[in-house]
Specification:
about 170 residues; 5 helices; about 75% helix
Length: about 170
Amino acid sequence: MTAPVRNPPNVLFSFAGAVVFLAGLGLMVLGLGQVIRGFVGTDAIHQLSGGSGPDYRQDQLKPIINGMSALFVGGTVLTVGRYLWRGARRRGWRDRLGRLLIILGYLVIGAALYVGTRYMVAMAGANSGDEAQQISINYLIAVAAIGFPGALLVFLGLRIANEVPLMGVSVSAE
């Protein structure tokens, strides 16, 4: 009985995956730093512990939301790097096509998350409740219009490549 022959990994895919993974990790670290700096700079810790809730202005929220945007995009880029790294082994055309669809889908989802943070900044600068409500409706429509096709691409890619999702979200309510 002989062991199955395993092809050596493609060095270019491994290198590209490592570089993209590290770039995503760097973006996440920068985003986290910006979020922390935004909270410290707006004196949010004092407001939260002092009894009155924080009353942020748009100029105070913008650095925090921009940091969240960098965290979202960094997480997406990091996940793309993981799929590139995992795709370094030669497994056939179905695997490559599936991984390509997965990567494209995650990039589209990352774009939806980025667009969502731009709407958050716009909501923070709204002058009235009606304006904020209209912005939030536009936010939901835009994120769904961009995010659902990305999720569909990821789903199809996972099925074609027989792969497991590396990035996910869960919500629970009590």
